[in-house]
Write a structure and sequence with these properties.
Oligomer: heterodimer
Order of helices and strands of chain A: HHHHHHHHHHHHHH
Structural class of chain A: mainly alpha
Radius of gyration of chain A: 24 Å
Largest interface: A-B, 54 and 50 residues
Shape of chain A: globular
Number of strands of chain A: 0
Radius of gyration of chain B: 25 Å
Distance between the termini of chain B: 52 Å
Largest sheet of chain B: 12 strands, mixed
Structural class of chain B: alpha+beta
Distance between the termini of chain A: 6 Å
Largest sheet of chain A: none
Chain lengths: ~325, ~525
């Protein structure tokens, strides 16, 4: 097992090198000058040259790449061309907000998607199943941007049920930052008001971002459940007179979880990297917006940094999913 | 039981505020200003050159002189109570008498040495705004001297315009920083740059309490401020990138001022009793540059024909819904030297006659580079381009629109490789020279150069006007220059945009300075 883990970690390293090289060179193929973007239209030639030198952009691309990789090997992600700060500092600032939002969306997808999938499978082709199918279709096809504005306009502005954009009410000051995760920091500071407020602020963006994944998770759970519900061992379980809940949750769901788990894992990765529009609508200071602004500014150190973080998250989630397979299905072994 | 308990707790947490009557609006002494501040990079006045960074810096730092409100032609005293320009033969000497009794937010007194330190610091750091002092005013480190504790003397080269220099000093690049505080936080030789990025050490009505990137900047009243106490003691500049979200926040009372409404949103909100819409002037000009080395744009008649083909009123009225002013000369309204002449209107017959004169009776095809995204005034660049395309078609000119990301477009434009380019220009400092030189002086390597427009007469006029210290003579020179470029220059100036704010009904005293900032000290709610 530990050998398997070591192998996986080593291959992750290779993936990261590949990802960084690809991103680096794609960023350099774009026929525009990041320095012009950073300094603006009015910049003078000597400033442009000084800036280029300061960021090593006057060197040939290959040299730039080797220098970049050399620094990366020492854990240095470089300095953002746009914000002029170390990329690592930027990531530390923006990643926690996105992790919080992505996790909230993921919880939404789990709490709504899995039960809906189970119930749909049990009541296949009955009213609930049809309703779920329609809901899933809507959830999967509704533009995130529109859904976000719809929720803001109604739940926040018209009904005043939930707070508006941002991670916290303007009247509240955030707790001292230890992890960057507001909920965790509020708990560490023992600040219940901030914790409650931050949690409420998560509801609308979490729903907005999570709805697409909810639909996918629900459909996946349903079809996986359908496959096992008519297997012999489930029929045997029923025949033994076991209570329905036990049959469904213990015998059927556990076996249906393998494909569902894969989808849930992928969904988590997607949620963390695909939050741009939700972050824009809800003024959420997260990584998605940082990534787009950086990309538009041709800020390649930042873009490579974000890509690496996304790759690490994907790989980790995949690893966790693979390890969970072992727990769910004793037949799976990695020796 | 345990999981069930967790669900109950979670649901209770989610639903507890329901029916409690919503959420608290911001306190009366706190002003919440929502805007897209993703361009905020540094709040150090020697570094900031982005709209939102300047908005903050203008409120936490003071300059020697200032333009107040919407008037960009009358200099007002700020940290200097009086100033004098003297012709010292080989140079200009500009002396400033400092206001007595001013203290920084740090508690230390303002001194003439602090002023010299601040201007020298800008030049030494050589960041984005430094060219204003170095290139436009021709200053070097050491040219600003403290004479005693309350007098500052600046030596300007004879090639620089003292008027333009004073205008530059109204901008954050001329802000005075507490030298002791900056040096106390120096790392390496950065004169406190890294620290001042997100801290403040000025004499302004506010000081910076905190800045969370992509989230908010919080200003609190400076207890040592020399002027009248600001009416709101806290200003929160909240980052809200999406304009619909800004709209919801002002409509619900969670924000007091929204800064980036589209014309449609402003119209929708005009019906809300709790909200008022206020317009702000901008100094930008949206124009088309024509590369005069690219045939047939090299013919004066062709350029004139293009100017006679466009439906300027239609652009302002229908596309921009009146959120702009028709301006056709190169100095915008609001600056000294503005020329209100608008001789051009859509006249296809006249345009066709001009084309025949140029031997192009059958028309021609030309390419127009157009940025992606929204243009000033709230419409898309591509919509303006499409309108221009259909206007030119009526005169027999075929326009090929090529949409390009602004960064890439600027690359092409700066390399003199555009045929026609649709773009905007805003002056770097509130003086007509901020437009006149770039638009007319080929040697300045700015807009005239990009369009390969080399007119020595225009360049000489611009230089002469820049250096002229007599106001009426200066005005006459700018009139002469703008009239000349109107017909001979390579530009089609389309409009000067306005911007819109939504304010809660009770908000008073908010004035948008056309240099794109507001002074919150005058605002009450």
């Amino acid at each position: 097992m530990s050998q398997y883990l070591l192998g996986r970690i080593a291959s992750t390293g290779l993936v990261l090198v590949g990802v960084s090289a690809l991103t680096f060179f794609i960023a350099h193929v774009v026929p525009a000058d990041p320095v012009l973007v950073a300094l603006g239209e009015h910049a003078r030639e000597d400033q442009i040259q000084a800036y280029r030198r300061a960021y090593g952009l006057d060197r040939p691309v290959l040299v730039q790449y080797l220098l970049y990789m050399g620094r990366l090997a020492q854990g240095d992600l470089g300095v953002s061309i746009r914000t002029r700060r170390p990329v690592a500092d930027d990531l530390r600032e923006f990643l926690p907000a996105t992790i919080e939002l992505g996790t909230a969306a993921w919880v939404v997808a789990l709490l709504l998607g899995v039960p809906a999938g189970i119930v749909s499978a049990i009541y296949k082709d009955r009213l609930f199943d049809h309703l779920c199918r329609i809901a899933a279709l809507m959830g999967a096809s509704m533009p995130v941007f529109w859904l976000g504005l719809l929720l803001l306009g109604n739940v926040y502005y018209r009904l005043r049920w939930l707070p508006g954009p941002g991670r916290l009410d303007i009247a509240l000051s955030p707790p001292p930052s230890r992890t960057g995760l507001l909920l965790v920091d509020a708990l560490l500071a023992g600040d219940g008001a901030v914790f409650g407020n931050a949690l409420l602020h998560l509801v609308l963006p979490g729903l907005t971002l999570g709805l697409f994944s909810t639909a996918v998770v629900a459909r996946m759970t349903r079809s996986a459940m359908l496959e096992v519900l008519y297997q012999d061992y489930v029929r045997t379980a029923w025949a033994k007179g076991l209570p329905g809940r036990r049959v469904v949750l213990r015998h059927a769901l556990r076996n249906a979880m393998i494909p569902t788990l894969t989808i849930i894992g992928i969904a988590f990765g997607n949620l963390l990297s695909g939050a741009v529009l939700t972050e824009t609508v809800f003024a959420w200071p997260g990584l998605g917006r940082y990534a787009t602004t950086s990309a538009v500014s041709l800020d390649f150190p930042a873009v490579v940094g974000v890509t690496l973080v996304a790759a690490v998250i994907y790989t980790l989630v995949n690893l966790v999913v693979d390890l969970l397979y072992v727990r769910l299905d004793p037949r799976v072994r990695y020796d | 039981m345990r999981p069930r308990l967790a669900v109950v707790v979670l649901l209770a947490a989610l639903f507890w505020p329901f029916g409690t009557g919503g959420f608290a609006a911001p306190a009366r002494d706190t002003l919440v200003y929502v805007s897209d501040i993703s361009d905020m990079i540094s709040l150090d006045p020697a570094v900031a050159y982005e709209f939102s960074g300047i908005l903050v810096a203008q409120n936490v730092y003071d300059t020697l002189v200032a333009f107040e409100g919407e008037d960009l032609s009358t200099l007002k005293p700020r940290l200097a109570t009086s100033w004098r320009i003297r012709d010292a033969g080989s140079a200009w000497k500009v002396t400033f008498k400092l206001r007595p009794g001013v203290r920084f937010s740090t508690g230390r007194p303002l001194t003439a040495r602090a002023v010299a330190f601040s201007l020298d610091r800008v030049i030494a750091l050589n960041k984005s705004p430094a060219f204003l002092l170095k290139d436009v005013a021709g200053l070097k480190e050491g040219d600003t001297k403290a004479i005693g504790n309350d007098t500052v003397e600046v030596t300007l080269p004879k090639t620089a315009s003292p008027q333009a220099f004073l205008s530059i000093l109204t901008f954050t690049v001329g802000a005075v920083v507490d030298p002791e505080e900056a040096l106390a936080h120096q790392s390496g030789t950065d004169r406190g740059e890294a620290w001042l990025r997100n801290h403040s050490a000025g004499t302004g009505p506010y000081r910076l309490e905190r800045w969370d990137a992509e989230a908010r900047a919080v200003l609190v009243a400076n207890p040592n401020y020399w002027g009248p106490r600001p009416k709101v003691s806290r200003v929160i500049i909240q980052h809200v990138p999406e304009t619909s979200t800004q709209k919801f926040m002002v409509a619900s009372g969670d924000a007091d001022i929204a800064a980036n409404l589209t014309p449609e949103q402003a119209r929708e909100m005009a019906g809300d009793q709790n909200v008022k819409i206020q317009r702000g002037k901008l100094l930008q000009l949206v124009y088309i540059g024509m590369n005069v080395k690219h045939p047939p744009l090299d013919k004066a008649q062709v350029r004139e024909a293009i100017r006679w083909s466009i439906d300027y009123d239609g652009i302002v009225r229908n596309l921009l819904r009146g959120e702009a002013r028709k301006v056709q000369t190169i100095i915008p309204e609001g600056l000294f030297g503005f020329n209100p002449a608008t001789p051009f209107q859509q006249n296809p017959a006249r345009a066709k006659a001009l084309l025949r004169e140029a031997g192009l009776g059958g028309g021609f095809t030309v390419e127009l580079l157009v940025p992606t995204g929204p243009a000033p005034g709230g419409v898309k660049w591509s919509d303006i381009a499409a309108k221009v395309q259909s206007d030119l078609a009526k005169s027999g000119i075929t326009l090929q629109i090529k949409e390009t990301a602004q960064a890439q477009l600027l690359n092409i434009y700066r390399a003199q490789k555009g045929q026609m380019v649709l773009i905007l220009w805003g002056p770097d400092f509130p003086d007509p020279d901020g437009n006149a030189t770039p638009f007319t002086d080929f040697a300045a390597k700015s807009i005239a150069w990009r369009n390969q427009y080399d007119d020595p007469v225009a360049a000489r006029l611009a230089k002469q006007a820049a250096l002229e210290t007599n106001r009426s003579r200066r005005l006459a020179l700018y009139k002469q220059l703008t009239d000349r470029v109107l017909h001979e220059g390579p530009y089609v100036v389309l409009y000067q945009p306005t911007t819109r704010f939504a304010l809660r009904k009770g908000v008073q005293g908010f004035v948008w300075n056309p240099m794109a900032f507001a002074e919150f000290r005058t605002v009450s709610k």
